[in-house]
C-alpha cells in the first residue's frame, strides 16, 4: 500500500503541474457562470428590474377580505403595496401605470370562482403565481359562507393522497404502506439538493478517472512503465493510479463547489446549505464514490491494452462510452422513478449509480430492498472488475506495438 500511495502522489503532482489541467480546473466552472450571464443577457433586458420592482395592488372588495390579503402579503414577503379603491370594474379597460394591478372581489365573483384581475403590461413575472396563494383563503371564506363547520372545512381542504396498500377491514388503518421515517421529508429541497451535489461529485470524478486511459497508454508509449515496474508490482501501480485520479477528481469537485456554490447562493433564494447538510447527503456521496471505483477499475484495465489513445480499437472505444450509458435511460427514470425501466436500471452495474441517485432524489418513499440489492450489485461489480483489471493490467501494461484484441484480453483474464 505504501508503494501505491507513492504512485498516487506522483500522479497527483504530475497533473497539478500540468498547465492544461490547472487551467481547465478553473475554466470549467467559469464557463458555467458565463453561460448563466449570457442567458440573462439574451433574455428580456427588463427581467432583473421586473424582479426587483414591487407591485402596487389596488383591491376593490366588499366581503371583508382585504385584511387577509395584507396578512398573506406580510407572511409571504411579496412586497405588494396594497391599497383599497372604489374604482368600479367597468372603468378599468387597461392599466397604463407599470407594476400595477387591480383586483375585484365580491360575492358574485366568489360564487363564480372567477376573480377579475387587471395587470399592467410591465409587471412582476412572479405576480400571477403569487395571486394563487389567495385561492385557499377565498375557498375557506366561501365554505364558511355556506355554513360549513371548521371540521368540515378542514376535511374538504385536506389533500387526497394515493398510497399502495391491501384491502383492510373496517376501521383498520393501512398496515403495509411503504414508509421511510428517517428520510421521508416534506421539504423536497432536502432530497433534490443532496442528489444534485452527489451527481456533480459522481460525474466529475468519473470523467477525471477516464484520464487513466491516457495515463496508462502514454506510459506504454514512452516506455516509462518498464522503469516503474522495476520497483513495484503491477497491482501497486494500478491501485496507485486509481487512487491518484480519485484525489484529482476530489480536487476538481472542491474547486467546482468553491466557485459555483457561493454563486448559486448569491443568485438564488434557495436555502442550499440548510438542505445540503442532511443525513442523506452522506449516503448519496457514498454511491458517487462507488461509481468512480467501478468505472476506474475498468478504465485502468482497458487503458493498459492500448498502445495509443488515438488508435483505440472498437472494444476500447466502447468501454470509454460506458459512463454515458447511464444517460440513455435518464428520461424514463425521471418521468417514472418507480417504473420498470428505473427498477431494471438500478440492477445493471453500468447504469445503477446514476439511476439510483435519481430515484432516491425523486421518490417520496425509498424502496429499501431495491436499494440494498443495487448497492450490493455495485460493490460486487467493483470487486469483479478490480480482479479482472488486475489480470489485464499485469500483462497489458508491458504490451507494445498494437492494441490488444478481445481474444487476447480474454486469454489474459483466464490466466
Automatic annotation (TrEMBL):
Q: ABC-2 type transporter transmembrane domain location, by residue?
A: 19-388
- What keywords were assigned to this record? Cell membrane, Membrane, Transmembrane, Transmembrane helix
Query: Which superkingdom?
Result: Bacteria
Q: Which PANTHER family match?
A: MEMBRANE COMPONENT OF ABC TRANSPORTER YHHJ-RELATED (PTHR30294), MULTIDRUG ABC TRANSPORTER PERMEASE YBHS-RELATED (PTHR30294:SF29)
Identify the Pfam families for this entry.
Answer: ABC2_membrane_3
The compartments listed are: Cell membrane
Asked if Oxidoreductase is a keyword of the record, the answer is no
Q: Does the keyword Magnesium apply?
A: no
Please tell me where this protein is predominantly located.
Answer: membrane
Q: What is this protein called?
A: Sodium transporter
The membrane topology of this protein is: Multi-pass membrane protein
Membrane-spanning parts: 21-42, 192-213, 242-265, 277-303, 367-386
Amino acid at each position: 500500500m505504501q508503494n501505491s500511495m507513492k504512485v498516487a502522489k506522483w500522479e497527483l503532482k504530475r497533473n497539478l503541474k500540468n498547465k492544461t489541467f490547472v487551467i481547465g480546473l478553473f475554466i470549467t466552472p467559469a464557463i458555467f457562470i458565463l453561460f448563466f450571464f449570457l442567458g440573462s443577457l439574451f433574455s428580456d433586458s427588463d427581467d432583473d428590474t421586473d424582479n426587483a420592482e414591487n407591485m402596487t395592488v389596488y383591491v376593490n372588495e366588499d366581503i371583508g377580505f382585504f385584511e387577509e390579503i395584507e396578512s398573506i402579503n406580510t407572511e409571504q414577503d411579496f412586497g405588494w403595496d396594497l391599497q383599497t379603491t372604489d374604482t368600479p370594474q367597468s372603468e378599468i379597460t387597461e392599466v397604463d401605470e407599470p407594476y400595477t394591478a387591480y383586483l375585484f372581489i365580491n360575492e358574485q365573483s366568489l360564487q363564480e370562482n372567477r376573480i377579475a384581475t387587471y395587470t399592467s403590461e410591465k409587471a412582476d413575472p412572479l405576480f400571477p403565481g403569487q395571486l394563487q396563494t389567495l385561492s385557499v383563503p377565498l375557498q375557506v371564506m366561501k365554505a364558511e359562507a355556506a355554513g360549513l363547520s371548521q371540521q368540515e372545512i378542514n376535511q374538504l381542504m385536506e389533500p387526497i393522497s394515493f398510497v399502495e396498500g391491501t384491502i383492510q377491514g373496517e376501521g383498520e388503518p393501512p398496515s403495509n404502506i411503504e414508509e421511510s421515517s428517517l428520510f421521508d421529508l416534506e421539504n423536497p429541497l432536502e432530497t433534490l439538493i443532496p442528489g444534485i451535489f452527489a451527481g456533480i461529485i459522481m460525474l466529475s470524478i468519473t470523467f477525471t478517472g477516464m484520464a487513466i486511459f491516457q495515463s496508462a497508454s502514454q506510459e506504454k508509449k514512452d516506455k516509462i512503465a518498464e522503469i516503474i515496474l522495476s520497483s513495484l508490482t503491477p497491482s501497486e501501480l494500478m491501485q496507485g493510479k486509481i487512487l491518484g485520479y480519485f484525489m484529482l477528481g476530489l480536487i476538481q469537485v472542491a474547486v467546482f463547489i468553491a466557485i459555483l456554490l457561493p454563486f448559486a447562493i448569491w443568485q438564488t433564494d434557495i436555502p442550499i446549505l440548510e438542505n445540503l447538510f442532511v443525513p442523506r447527503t452522506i449516503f448519496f456521496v457514498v454511491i458517487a464514490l462507488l461509481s468512480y471505483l467501478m468505472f476506474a477499475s475498468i478504465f485502468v484495465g482497458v487503458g493498459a491494452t492500448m498502445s495509443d489513445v488515438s488508435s483505440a480499437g472498437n472494444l476500447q472505444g466502447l468501454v470509454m462510452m460506458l459512463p454515458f450509458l447511464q444517460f440513455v435511460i435518464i428520461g424514463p427514470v425521471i418521468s417514472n422513478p418507480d417504473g420498470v425501466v428505473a427498477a431494471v436500471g438500478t440492477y445493471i452495474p453500468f447504469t445503477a449509480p446514476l439511476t439510483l441517485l435519481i430515484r432516491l432524489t425523486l421518490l417520496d418513499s425509498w424502496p429499501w430492498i431495491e436499494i440494498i440489492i443495487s448497492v450490493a450489485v455495485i460493490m460486487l461489480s467493483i470487486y469483479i472488475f478490480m480482479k479482472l483489471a488486475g489480470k489485464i493490467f499485469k500483462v497489458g501494461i508491458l504490451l507494445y506495438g498494437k492494441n490488444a484484441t478481445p481474444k487476447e484480453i480474454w486469454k489474459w483474464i483466464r490466466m
